[in-house]
Write a structure and sequence with these properties.
Mean pLDDT: 93
Number of domains: 1
Helix content: 10-25%
Oligomer: single chain
Distance between the termini: 29 Å
Number of strands: 9
Low-confidence stretches: none
Radius of gyration: 16 Å
CATH superfamily: Electron Transport, Fmn-binding Protein, Chain A
CATH architecture: Roll
Order of helices and strands: EHEEEEHEEHHEE
Strand content: 35-45%
Shape: globular
Structural class: alpha+beta
Length: 157
Amino acid sequence: MAETPNFTELKLTPEMHALVNNALVEGHPLVIAVVDPTGQPYLSFRGSLQTYSDTQLGFWLRIPQGHTLSAIQSNPRVALIYRSPKVPLLQFHGRARVTNDPQERDRVFNASPEAERKQDPERKGVAIIIDLTRIEGVLGFDASGPIWCRMAAPARS
């Protein structure tokens, strides 16, 4: 029987903040996976994705008429994946929510890369915040093998 990996408390490290916040500029935008109300999975690149806090991600959804918004509204569970030449695999799991709070909307929009903000100058999009539940993957390799990342949020009561 396979051993269950040990997880540390979920808290984005400064390196993870940099990976996510610079992903688009460095040519490695994250991909989000959602499942729509009919059960159909959808994948999409998220150029505006950013860290919102040490336990949250955020992104500006420029075109709310697409599959992503209806999927999140029917099933808030999402997964995201990051890969680059330096980081073989980093998966983020969490629960997404739309925020209508003006301060949160402004913060998510303003933290988006300039190229993304220019695509929605009238701010017709929607701000999404993801409360992370788990982060797993391989951050790189050293002489002893993979450098694992296994983080989980405390269980909700």
